[in-house]
Design brief:
Length: 109
């Protein structure tokens, strides 16, 4: 559903105000590569410990599995933040037009 002229005018005003705000780009989430790498490492080590503990004790393997689930949930939240950060780097006009990079232009030669 296309936006009305009034809605487009309001969105243009918001875009202009945000472009003039020097701290707007600096706010938001920052994803630490080190933290993400540690989460991946913890996940892999947790899986290895889970498999090794299966030979020793079911309870120990279950505790290790819970650790793996915890690390996976934390990693998933980091990936979500990374996605938000990447989306946040798009210009507001890209959000307003909502075009995908793979879509063809409506202008034909």
């Amino acid at each position: 559903m296309p936006l009305s002229e009034d809605e487009q005018r309001i969105l243009r005003q918001i875009e202009e105000e945000l472009e003039q705000d020097p701290t707007f780009a600096q706010r938001g989430y920052r994803v630490s590569r080190r933290r993400s790498a540690l989460l991946v490492l913890g996940l892999v080590i947790g899986l290895a410990v889970t498999v090794a503990c299966l030979a020793v004790s079911f309870v120990a393997a279950f505790v290790a599995f819970l650790f793996v689930v915890f690390m996976a949930v934390k990693l998933e939240s980091e990936i979500r933040l990374l996605g938000r950060e990447q989306l946040g780097q798009l210009p507001i006009s890209a959000w307003l037009h909502a075009r995908r990079p793979d879509e063809q232009s409506d202008i034909s030669d």
